[in-house]
């Protein structure tokens, strides 16, 4: 899966089309992700010790990874993810993710 936790993505289909948000969680075995503010559902919660009142809670549900594209904030454009190899000053080669439309390197959280 080319989309990682912490990436900025834009939804390209469905009710939330053109919405930009951050990926909160990834589920590679299911090819699904949770995006901040997208696919918000109401869940009925039973009263528990942590939540004694219970009630109705709004939370984000999973969406398929094919419904989003990586988003470049500087260019304000969404694009597909590609890979390229970069060499640093010491001669070390590293494989990095790249936005194919803008050519910008996608920085991962380390």
From TrEMBL:
Q: Keywords in alphabetical order, please.
A: Ribonucleoprotein, Ribosomal protein, RNA-binding, rRNA-binding
Coiled-coil ranges (or none): none
Q: Does the keyword Transmembrane apply?
A: no
| Limits of the KOW domain | 2-29
Any GO CC annotation of this UniProt entry: ribosome
CDD domains to which the protein is assigned, alphabetical = KOW_RPL26
The UniProt entry, under InterPro entries, shows: KOW, Rib_uL2_dom2, Ribosomal_uL24, Ribosomal_uL24_C, Ribosomal_uL24_KOW, Translation_prot_SH3-like_sf
What's this protein's family per the entry?
Answer: Belongs to the universal ribosomal protein uL24 family.
**Record PANTHER family:** MITOCHONDRIAL RIBOSOMAL PROTEIN L24
Q: How does it assemble?
A: Part of the 50S ribosomal subunit.
Q: Its function?
A: One of two assembly initiator proteins, it binds directly to the 5'-end of the 23S rRNA, where it nucleates assembly of the 50S subunit.
Name-wise, this protein is: Large ribosomal subunit protein uL24
Please name the source species. Amedibacillus dolichus
Instruction: Recall the taxonomic lineage recorded for the source organism.
Output: Bacteria, Bacillati, Bacillota, Erysipelotrichia, Erysipelotrichales
